[in-house]
Structures are given as C-alpha cells and as structure tokens.
C-alpha cells in the first residue's frame, strides 16, 4: 500500500518519537546489509536518532567481504592466455594484493562487465575457443541466478563456461560476530533481500541461541525506522525475538523455488571472509554433478602470498568493531577516487557511504 507524503511524514514522526522514548540506555545496533547502510545515510536516519542509539555496519557488502585471495586468483585467471573474465562492475576497482582487475584490463586482459550472470553464456557461445570465467560474488540473493546460469550452461552443452565461486551465506557470519565478545551488538537489522530467499529459519539462532533481538527489515526509510523501533521495543521489554518488519516481501518460508535451484547446483562449504578468515559452512561450492563448471577444478592454478592492504582496517569495519572514521587512512590516503581497501570501493561499502554522505556520526 502506497502512503501519501503526509502519511509517510506522520509515520516517520511516530517511529522517531517512539525511538526517542524507548532509548533509555545506550544501545548498539548493527545494520548487517550494505544496502541498509547506504539507505540509512541517504535518508539522514542517523541524524534523527537520539545519541543513545548507535548504528554500526556489518558484513553485508558482498564485494567488501570477498578476501584478497579470491581477487588475486581472479587476477591470475585474467592473465591466463585464452581466458575471458566476466564480472559485475564493482569488483573491477577493488585492490588485490598487488594489482586490480581494472589494472589488468588496462594492460590488455579480456575482462568484461556483465549485468547478470546469464550474460556470460552469450560470451561463452560467441567465443568457443576461450575459457569464460564468471566471478560469482554475492549472497543468498544473487546465488540463485548464478545457479540458474549453470543449469542453462549445462542445458546448452557449454564446455568453456566456468564460475569462480565466492558466494556467501549471511547467517554463519552473524554467528561469527556473536561468538566474538569484542563485538558488542544489542540488536540486528537483518537484510530483507537475503531473508526473502532463505526465509526466517536460518536467522532464528540470533535470538534463540544468543538472546539478541533481530528484525528482518526492508530498505525504505520508514522500514528502517520501524525496524529500529521494533528492536528498541524488544530491548526495553527484555525480549529477544526474531521479528519480520518486511512482511510485504519476506515470507516465513522464503522462496523455495529459488532455494531448489540453488540446492541443485551448490552445497554449503567453508569459505574465507575479509576480516573473519574462514567461516565453516558460509560459502557455496558446486555439487559433484556440476563441478565441471568450477574454474578452480577445471583450470587449476596456484596463487600464493595474498595479503590485505597495509593500514586498511576493513576487517574491523566489517566485524562492527570500528566505524570507518576510526581508520587512520579514512579520507586521507583512502578515498573513493584512490581506494586503499574494498570498503571504500563498493557502492555498498561502509567506508564509501561514510565518505560520500558525511561523517555526522
Ligand atoms: Fe580500508 Fe580505506 Fe576503509 Fe580504512 S578507510 S578501512 S583503508 S577501505
């Protein structure tokens, strides 16, 4: 249901007044998703909140959490003769250990930006003598499309299409955060789009096992204000539940059809996250039936010596330990034009959002 401007303003006032009343002690809330981080800045929500309510970003920007080891591997593949790399555009500028995909492209590597994983199949068909490797980066939201692409490649009998999978699942990263005593989080705004695929079940442990309130939240300013309001209501009443603010999109059972496609092609596996290291069961690898599409299985190569950029504190930003201005590089050596780390590159990166939309608080 669409609200009029007057109704929207009234609802926003209701939630901000409510938040102010409920903020009787300092609380630290994590917006897990990069889309939330950007929406919060764009709508000026930080400025609407009382000082007692602190918002901290989490590990929900897929480009940011992809470690340099993966980037270095992608760069090594881009240097492999007879290889075309296909990727979403925001991976291009992320600095690897010694180079970036952008720098490799400038030096002549065949790296093509695609807007959907499916675009890679046409490139593979048009270049039968080349290996086409799609950089499969993203969470539960994008993984089903990559899985559908692999099913299509199988159907079309393509033998020169491969994926380099860095797909990640959000719940295991939340568990890693909750298991780290240094990260103090009183409540979570959970990403609505990943829950739309997975459903609510994978997030129940946040409240059930760790006793921390969590609200699956949409991406409009009103959604976010309501999500914060719901978290503060729980905290004031001493409750810890998983609630769904985004019921117009997120169903309890999620999207079984998308999960079915995913389960045909992928299975959970351990994978590395920037700032966290390897998290068990947090990645997706191809099942045996589709492993021939796995770039690393079909075209093995070895990359050694990956390291994070000197001085970059992306890992701490992604774990909610610090906010970007606490990084000594922020706005000095590290800007969106000259990024040092991934969090300053991606449009969903916390450092880029803090830099672009002001450093109010
Ligand atoms: Fe890394 Fe730059 Fe963010 Fe610092 S400001 S954490 S160097 S991306």
Task: Write the topology of this structure.
Blueprint: H1 5-22, E1 27-33, H2 34-42, H3 45-48, E2 53-60, H4 62-65, H5 68-78, E3 83-87, H6 101-106, E4 111-113, H7 119-126, E5 131-138, H8 143-155, E6 161-167, H9 170-178, E7 187-191, H10 192-198, H11 204-208, E8 214-217, H12 221-236, E9 242-244, H13 256-265, E10 266-273, E11 277-286, H14 295-298, H15 314-318, H16 350-357
Parallel strand pairs: 1-2, 1-7, 3-4, 3-5, 5-6, 7-8, 8-9
Antiparallel strand pairs: 10-11
Helix pairs in contact: 1-12, 2-16, 8-13
Question: What's the short version?
Answer:
With 361 residues, the chain is of the alpha/beta class. The chain has helices at residues 5-22, 34-42, 45-48, 62-65, 68-78, 101-106, 119-126, 143-155, 170-178, 192-198, 204-208, 221-236, 256-265, 295-298, 314-318, 350-357, and strands spanning 27-33, 53-60, 83-87, 111-113, 131-138, 161-167, 187-191, 214-217, 242-244, 266-273, 277-286. The chain has 16 helices and eleven strands.
